[in-house]
Amino acid sequence: VIGIVGAVAGAVAGKVIERACTSPEANEIQVQIKNGDRRAIVQAKGKEGFEPGVAVILITTSGKVRVAKAPKM
């Protein structure tokens, strides 16, 4: 019985370690749309940083949404 409990505990610990090592770091970006609606988008951290008040665009591909800085006009 102790061996089975140890094996299960080891498997669970292995899964936790694997998830911690393989999951990318992410940012939650809160966006207020011009009509007043607000959305929160979680996306992997990239090279692009976002400051409060910066204009962004929402890009939807295959049902997934990501945020990018709006092009300067």
Supply Rg.
20 Å
Mean pLDDT: 80
Order of helices and strands: HEEEE
What shape does the CA trace take? elongated
DSSP, total strands? 4
Described by strand count, sense and barrel closure, the largest sheet is: 2 strands, antiparallel
Return the structural class: alpha+beta
Taking the alpha carbons of the first and last residues, their distance comes to 69 Å
**DSSP helix count?**
1
Low confidence ranges: none
The amount of helix comes to: 25-40%
Strand arrangement across the biggest beta sheet: 1-2
The percentage of residues in β strands lies in 35-45%
Summarize the structure.
29% of the residues lie in helices and 36% in strands.
What report would you give on this structure?
With 73 residues, the protein is α+β, with helices and mostly antiparallel strands. Helix content is 29%, strand content 36%. The chain is built from 1 helix and 4 strands. The chain is elongated, with a radius of gyration of 20 Å. The chain starts with a helix and ends with a strand.
Helix/strand layout:
Elements (H helix, E strand, L loop, with lengths): L1 H21 L3 E7 L5 E7 L11 E6 L2 E6 L4
Antiparallel strand pairs: 1-2, 3-4
Record keyword descriptors for this entry:
single chain; 73 residues; alpha+beta; two-stranded antiparallel sheet; 1 helix; elongated
